[in-house]
Amino acid sequence: MKHHDVIIIGAGAAGLMCAATAGYRGRDVLVLDNAKQAGRKILISGGGRCNFTNQKVEPHQFICGNPHFVKSALARYRSSDFIELVERHGIEYHERDHGQLFCNDSAKDIVTMLMTECEWAGVKIKLRTEILSVNKVDNGFLLTTSNGELSCQSLVVATGGLSMPKLGATPYGYKLAEQFGLTVLPTSAGLVPFTWHAEQKARFEALSGIAVPATITAKDGTQFSEALLFTHRGLSGPAVLQISNYWQAGEAISINLLPGEDALEKIELALKNHPKQSLRNTLSHWLPKRLVEALFDEAQLDKALNQLGHGEREQLAQSLNDWSIIMNGTEGYRTAEVTLGGVDTNELSSKTMEANNVPGLYFVGEVMDVSGWLGGFNFQWAWASGVAAGLAV
User: Which cofactors are named for this entry (predicted)?
Assistant: First the structure.
């Protein structure tokens, strides 16, 4: 039976980062994964360009049952540290809105970089390996795998969440946590599009492909101002993905279709300047015509502005600045970018990611109850948590 200092289950972003960090410390590290390729989720992220981090990363951009948990790891491995690594490997990148950093060429560059770092650090990686059982023994852990028995002093769980099951996502990490007595908080799909109710679908399906700037507010007051995209299944776009992390089933969301503008003031000004202009033509200067026609009654749209009563104008303004809508649900894990919930961080060390009550057992990345905003924050958590554990194992 082969013994290693450290075995890491999962060859994704957090697992590979942890492996390289531990390997450079002289630890004998083995990474196991049941996939036939390492870093599969990295490869498809950011439309194949990988939004690998963000210029500005703050703890408030993460959702966690214990809001202080992320502070230590994020402070000790900053986005600037990862950017430096990317530059050292000669990877060209560019910045998009809100400080998001993407590869110029391909997400493959990030996977190649991580695999190169692991190789330089002496890490061994075994793919197509299924873990059949894990047991705690006196000096560490005993693993039975599809490729034989292995033992290790430190075991790192980097199995990810449930998002994107077609890439091989499974609940294995949660089951392992529960096996060792850790609490796993309820999971749900995060950074995910919303779906229509049947009657909404009939009304809005034809708008598929239309995108508008919007400010969306959740019931708890959290709001995001970004693009809103209509799809044939529901609502998507950055603003929707962001707000989905703060939404509970059955809650209304408020959509401001004229962010930063007072709709009533705009309507009153248009009335003053063009009293005989139809409401349809007025609103079509501000929003796509098809959206205007789906939102408002045809009889009302055909009226001239001077035919609208004050109450009607107020109602119209409210629909533009505060369109309240209850969506049917989300598209679920199939298209979700992250998994909300997971291993309870109150049972882990925020400095090392080690389980408080199980010496030698560590959790990194998405498997734990930490989810970042859209924009490179989840990758930064993978890098930071991976380094934190890699320095401790």
Answer: FAD
* Residue 387 neighbours by CB under 8 Å, 6+ apart: 17, 18, 21, 73, 76, 77
Closest CA to 191 of 388, 378, 4, 37: 378
Using a 10 angstrom Cβ sphere, with 0-12 exposed, 13-18 middle and 19 or more buried, the burial of residue 161 is buried
Q: What phi, psi does 95 have (nearest 5°)? A: -105, 135
The token pair at 149 is 């028995």
Same CATH fold, 193-330 and 2-189+339-390?
no
What are the structure tokens assigned to 390, written together? 């890699």
3-class secondary-structure state, position 323: strand
Tell me the CA end-to-end span of the chain in Å, nearest whole number: 21
DSSP state, 278? Answer: B
pLDDT tens-digit series, residues 138-196: 999 999 999 999 999 999 999 999 998 888 888 999 999 999 999 999 999 999 999 99
The CATH architecture annotation of domain 193-330 reads Beta Barrel (2.40)
- Is pTM, for the whole model, over 0.90? yes
Residue reference for tokens 């870093």? 39
Mean pLDDT of 246-266: 96
Of 59, 76, 93, 62, nearest to 21 by C-alpha is: 76
Which amino acid belongs to residue 221? G
Domain boundary assignment for the chain: 2-189+339-390, 193-330
Tokens for 125?
Answer: 């990686």
Strands (E), 175-305: 184-190, 194-195, 211-217, 223-230, 234-236, 252-256
Distance CA 392, CA 353 (A): 9
Measured distance CA(369)–CA(188) in Å, rounded: 11
Q: Helix crossing, 108-120 with 79-88: angle to 10°?
A: 90
- Measuring CA to CA, which residue among 248, 157, 142 is closest to residue 194? 248
What residues contact residue 3 under an 8 Å CB cut-off, 6+ apart? Answer: 150, 151, 152
Topology (CATH level 3) of domain 2-189+339-390: FAD/NAD(P)-binding domain (3.50.50)
